[in-house]
Design brief:
There is one protein chain. By secondary structure, this protein is an alpha+beta fold. The protein is 34% helix and 26% strand. The strands form 4 sheets. Strands 4-5-10-6-7 form a 5-stranded antiparallel beta sheet. Strands 11-12-13-14 form a 4-stranded antiparallel beta sheet, with helices on both faces. The chain has a 3-stranded parallel beta sheet with strand order 1-3-2, with no helix packed on it. Helix 10 runs antiparallel to helix 11 and helix 11 packs antiparallel against helix 12. The radius of gyration is 19 Å and the shape is globular.
């Protein structure tokens, strides 16, 4: 790696001021699990890194609002999310997903804000957060704003963040009777990057689906909802005929990309199978937070 300056601001305002949106060689760094790999490979050669590690404990807290919303500070390590009683109680699908996300060394370092800002389409967490209708808080020189996680991701390693904006918090609304699952399919070990990820969050009365959010990741340029597949499921009984139609609609709707983990046709068939499995698993879940 080439030499670079490392600055460690102690406030959010100072950190934002140090990031020059006109200088592509200045970059914020949270855990650094992805950025350091890019630097070692020579893909990115920064002049300055603005470390966010000393911003304070307030950006690494997990709390629950009186209304049941789950709030996760952007600097919270993924391992803390994995072991959090609050996360397990209010959004157990997130805790389950963490157990197969990369390895424990990465989870100890990587932060939730950094993972979202990196926008790697193979990440497991974005599809789950989109399925749960999560949003983020963002701070920049012009002030603060919020946006849905599904609006944050705009393309392959691309986000809607301005160059000098930082994610400060992730917020997951109270899930009530929502039933949520995440399925990942890997070409290697269980904790490998997925060839396909499918997240489903739904509410049902008996066998009838009342609401649904279906999200595909890894096989596409970004994690994205399958709106036509959702429409094919909502208001229907989740029987074999409905799920067969769902599989066909999902496979036709998703813009699948080939890579080293599989061809487009292979991943499309995976989606056809795992969209159905995810819905069935969600329907069989209790639906109650635990």
């Amino acid at each position: 790696m080439i030499p670079f300056d490392l600055v460690e601001p102690t406030s959010l305002t100072e950190a934002i001021a140090l990031i020059d949106p006109r200088d592509p060689d200045v970059r914020p760094i949270a855990g650094g699990s992805a950025l350091m790999l890019m630097m070692k490979a020579g893909v990115f050669r920064p002049r300055r890194l603005v470390s966010l590690r000393k911003l304070g404990d307030g950006f690494a807290r997990i709390t629950v609002t009186p209304g049941g919303d789950l709030k996760i500070g952007a600097m919270t390590p993924l391992s803390a999310i994995e072991h959090s009683p609050e996360v397990l109680r209010h959004a157990p699908v997130i805790a389950r997903t963490m157990r197969r996300l990369s390895n424990v060394r990465v989870r100890n370092i990587a932060t939730v804000g950094g993972a979202l800002a990196h926008a790697d389409p193979h990440m497991d967490l974005p599809p789950v957060l989109i399925a749960l209708d999560a949003s983020i808080s963002v701070a920049g020189r012009s002030g603060e704003r919020s946006m849905a996680v599904e609006d944050l991701l705009t393309g392959y390693y691309e986000t809607a963040l301005a160059k000098n904006e930082l994610i400060t918090e992730v917020r997951i609304p109270a899930q009530a009777a929502t039933r949520a699952v995440y399925f990942k399919v890997t070409a290697g070990s269980a904790d490998d990057w997925p060839a396909l990820g499918v997240a489903v969050a739904l509410r049902a009365e008996g066998a009838t689906v009342k609401s649904a959010r279906i999200v595909v990741g890894a096989a596409t340029t970004k994690a994205a909802r399958l709106l036509a597949a959702e429409k094919a499921l909502i208001g229907q009984t989740a029987d074999d005929a409905t799920l067969k139609k769902l599989a066909d609609v999902a496979a036709d709707e998703a813009d699948i990309l080939a890579d080293v983990r599989g061809s487009a046709s292979y991943k499309r068939e995976l989606l056809r199978v795992y969209a159905v499995r995810a819905v069935r698993a969600a329907m069989q879940a209790s639906g109650a937070p635990h």
